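Two proteins follow. First one:
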Amino acid sequence: MPYAHKEDCFIDRADRPGKAILLNEEGTRLATFETDMTDAQIMSALDFANDAWARGVKFGNEQKAGEIRAVLGVPPIASGD
């Protein structure tokens, strides 16, 4: 699950002079950038945010699973690393 789907986002450069605003499909502001950033750079920033979001969700899920296993007395799963 990404922070935001790129295909559902758009960049508004008209609403606030000097700013480029990244909005989702509902019109919710996700980020604000200076207008000298290109659309490609802004979408690269969204890629970075989506990656960080996914890593955070994965970490949180693994942490929660470990807490549940500990409460149930189930040994931790060996990580294959």
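Second one, unrelated to the first:
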Amino acid sequence: MKFIYALAFVAAMALTAEAKKKSAWAVQRTNDVKDRLERTYGKGLVGMMHPETGKIDPTRFGWDNRVTGGAPLGSQLSITIKKGLTIDGTTNSAYWLGFAKGMQYEGLTKD
């Protein structure tokens, strides 16, 4: 019984312990993300703030996406299978079609 109490005490201490030293990878990753955001939104992330309220404006997060021109991902995605058959990538049917296609396992073939 004493062993169980000791084990529970050690487990509780392990859960409450915090890392004192950040890893070099975590520091480097944080600096990389900070640099990338500052290149996009300006020093101190001033381009991310609403000019009147001074708080972060979520509507500004899309304008920096140069791939879709600021549109949400998937909003311009449509695939034409054959003439007259186009699948819009934003619908539920496209999601389930992709899910079903992804669940088909063909296995490895030997040549």
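SUMMARY FIELD: The beta strands are 78-82, 85-88. Residues 24-41 form the longest helix (18 residues).
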